[in-house]
Amino acid sequence: MKAIIIDDEAKARSVLKTLIKEECHKIKEIDEAEDLLTGIEKIKQNQPDIVFLDIEMPEYSGLEILNFFSEEEITFQIIFTTAYSHYAIEAFKLNAIDYLLKPIDSEELRESVEKVITFIGNTQINERLKELKQSLQESDFKKIGLPNGNGIKFVNFNDIIMLEADGMYTKVSTTKENILVSKPLKFFVETLHKISTFYRPHRSYLINLRFLREYVKKDGGYVIMENDKTVSISKDKKEEFLTIVQSI
Q1: Do residues 180 and 171 touch, judged by C-beta distance below 8 A?
Q2: 60-92: string of b/e by CB count within 10 Å (b at 16+)?
C-alpha cells in the first residue's frame, strides 16, 4: 500500500512518517508534500491508497482537496491530521470522516489506518467531505489551535489581543501569554476573516478591536493595544480604520 502526507510543517510530516513506518506495516511507500497543490499533483501521479491530510494550511485548506478531482479519480481514503480540538471533533464523527488529533497518538494512528483500509475504493468520501465542510462552516467554534514548540495551545478567539508577522511565523499575543506559532500571518487572516472584531490595519499585523486602548494621530497614525504594543496603520487603511472604530 502507498500513502502520502500533505502538511505544510516539515516537522509534522517527519513525525507522522516515522509513526507510520513503526505502526502501519501494510503501508510500504510514503510520499510527502508541503502544500495542497503539490500533494494533488503527487496523488494523480502515484495514486496512493491513503492520504494523510492537514486541514490548516496556507493558500488552500485540506478541505478543498476534492475540488481538484473528478469523482472517478477518487480512489483513495483521507485521514485528516487536525489541530481542531474536541469542539470540532463531533463534526468529523457525525460525517464518518477519519481524523487524527495532533499531536498524533501511535495507537490511534494504527486503528485509523486499519479502519480506512476497509473503505479503500469507496467514493462516498466525496459526499462525506462535503457534509463535513458544511458542518465545520456552520458550527460556532470559539477556539483556535496554535502549533508551537511544545505541541498545540488552544486559545479562545476573545483572548487574542493581536498577531504580528515574523517571517513564516506569527507572534500571537493573548491576555495570558505570548506564543510564537509556526504559521504565517496570512493563515490567521484567512482563518479569522469571519470574526468581525479582527482587523488588519497593516500587512504585518492583525488586531482584535476589543483590545484597542488608544489611537494616536502623529507619525502617520498608529494604535496602542491593551498590552502596550504599538501597531502602525497603513495609509490606504487609515480612513477605513477610523470609520470602523468610530462605529464601535
Answers
A1: yes
A2: bbbbebbeeeeeeebebbbbbbbbbeeebeebb
C-alpha cell at 227: 498590552
pTM: 0.55
Looking only at the bridges linking them, the beta strands covering 230-232 and 222-225 are antiparallel
DSSP H helices in the chain: 10-23, 36-46, 86-94, 106-117, 125-138, 185-191, 238-246
How many Cα neighbours within 13 Å face the side chain of 11?
9
Q: 42-93, pLDDT tens digit by residue?
A: 999 999 999 999 987 877 878 788 788 887 888 888 898 887 654 466 556 5
Rounded Cα distance between 117 and 50, Å, is: 8
Query: C-alpha distances in angstroms, 144 versus 9, 202, 212?
Result: 17, 22, 21
Cβ-contact 144, 157 below 8 angstroms: yes
- Give the model confidence (pLDDT) of 84-142 as tens digits: 654 466 556 545 577 888 889 999 999 999 988 877 766 577 677 776 666 665 555 57
The position carrying cell 491530510 is 53
**Phi/psi of residue 217, each to 5°?**
-75, -35
Which domains does the chain carry?
A: 2-138 (3.40.50.2300), 153-246 (2.40.50.1020)
Which runs of consecutive H residues, i.e. helices, occur in 170-224?
185-191
